[in-house]
Design brief:
By secondary structure, the protein is α/β, with parallel strands linked by helices. The protein has helices at residues 16-28, 43-52, 81-102, 152-164, 169-177, 186-194, 241-249, 267-276, 294-299, 315-322, 333-338, 352-368, 371-386, 390-411, and strands spanning 2-7, 33-38, 58-62, 107-112, 129-134, 180-183, 200-202, 227-232, 256-261, 283-287, 303-306, 327-330, 344-347. The protein starts with a strand and ends in an 8-residue tail after the last helix.
């Protein structure tokens, strides 16, 4: 099939949005002819990679915007990128329309940005349009807004804006006209449905390189003297690490230690909270850990703690599960939907006090669990992660493409047969 992918950022060996677009493109091109419309931010890396690893089924079309309000300098970070993206989407649509005239495109699929807040206009094209996986419909539970400190008003405003999205004309039109929309969490799926979508499917936004997942379940890290819990992510309010620190203060088993990998604007505040809670000897802030060193860190831990108050899913959860780590997490949003019960302890999002107590109890119970139970959780985590490799995800997406294309062919009026 001829597949047209649209993804603003795209680059090999990168995480988040650039990695999502690249991996969909690379692995789908094993079976289809794939054209990718992307912004040229990572063009050099893409062209250098393809020079070393030619892929005749993969072609890139670089699109930018010269609109005065859409100017954006990647070297200055994300400043101005949201306004830029709106204008870029318009340019991308125009280029996609031209490609549809030049090439017999079978499917157009918008793969990133993965946010419900900026519906792409690709449904206007004369071919079936798919959108996602997307998140962004999730909001922070109101009773947990105090964890945002002075930023709680910004989070409240975001919540109001997200709840009002279902009345957005652009979203309602896109929701009704895309053949399939993939949602990364139930909150986003529900919002899409309220906006009029009738063909919403659940799908993780992240995936793992096939070589990333160990061929067999890694050996367990266990020590009678220590039970190591790992937390990894950006140190910002929505990631909820303050919940994890307060939970650790309530953990009774003094063998439990917490490793924290990551940096962010909340670092000083969280380090101060750790000292106030008397956790100096039980918590270690590691700072930023290079991606290629994370496997070593996963293998040194006994469990993974994920405390995000607002997240589509969290690709680091998949990475931890690939190394056989049981997960302790909040039972909401993407992790609540996708992480299998057998691989995790999911804590109810009821009230901060109850959640903190439940997290502490979950960690204590894991630390005291018999080896057989831990091993079963580790196996369930590893088995789930190896199903989420990009080659398998591309194979499943190919089945969706074929289903959508088949349906589209059936809907095309057929010429009357001569009698």
């Amino acid at each position: 099939m001829n597949i047209l992918l649209v993804g603003h950022a795209c680059g090999p060996g990168l995480g988040s949005e650039p990695g999502f677009t690249w991996n969909w493109a690379q692995f789908l091109s094993a079976k289809h002819r794939v054209w990718v419309i992307a912004h040229p931010q990572h063009r050099l890396q893409v062209e250098e990679y393809l020079a070393r690893n030619p892929s005749p089924n993969l072609c890139f079309v670089w699109v930018t915007t010269n609109h005065p309000l859409g100017r954006w300098n990647p070297e200055r970070g994300e400043r101005g990128i949201r306004m830029h993206y709106i204008f870029w989407l318009s340019e991308a649509y125009q280029r996609a329309a031209e490609l549809c005239k030049e090439i017999a495109i079978d499917i157009v699929h918008h793969v990133s940005w993965g946010t419900i807040g900026a519906p792409p206009p690709l449904w206007r094209l004369p071919v079936p349009a798919l959108w996602g996986p997307i998140g962004g419909g999730q909001t922070t539970p109101a009773q947990y807004l105090s964890f945002f400190g002075k930023q709680h008003w910004a989070e409240r405003i975001r919540t109001v804006r997200i709840k009002a999205l279902r009345f957005s004309r652009k979203l309602r039109i896109a929701a009704r006209n895309c053949q399939v929309i993939f949602a990364t969490n139930q909150d986003t799926a529900d919002l899409l449905t309220r906006a009029g979508a009738t063909r919403v499917r659940m799908l993780l936004d992240g995936g793992l390189p096939p070589a990333y997942v160990p061929a067999s379940l890694p050996a367990s890290f266990s020590s009678p003297q220590e039970f190591t819990v790992l937390w990894a992510g950006r140190l910002e309010h929505r990631k909820g690490l303050a919940l994890g620190l307060q939970a650790l203060a309530g953990v009774k088993d003094d063998r439990v230690k917490l490793l924290i990998a990551g940096r962010g604007p909340q670092q000083e505040e969280l380090e101060s909270l750790s000292r106030q809670l008397g956790l100096a000897g039980r918590v270690k802030f590691l700072g930023s850990v290079p991606y290629d060193r994370m496997p070593e860190l996963f293998q040194s831990a006994s469990a993974f703690l994920f405390t995000s108050l607002r997240d589509s899913f969290g690709s680091v959860v998949l990475e931890a599960m690939a190394h056989g780590l049981p997960v302790v997490t909040l039972d909401h949003q993407g992790v609540g939907t996708f992480v299998p019960e057998a691989a995790a302890v999911k804590v109810a999002v009821s009230s901060p006090g109850q959640t903190i107590e439940a997290l502490a109890a979950a960690i204590d119970n894991l630390a005291a669990s018999p080896p057989g139970l831990i091993e079963a959780m580790r196996s369930a985590a590893w088995n789930f992660a190896r199903e989420q490799t990009w080659d398998r995800r591309a194979a499943r997406m190919s089945e969706v493409y074929e289903e959508v294309a088949r349906t589209a062919r059936q809907l095309v009026p057929q010429p009357l047969a001569l009698r």
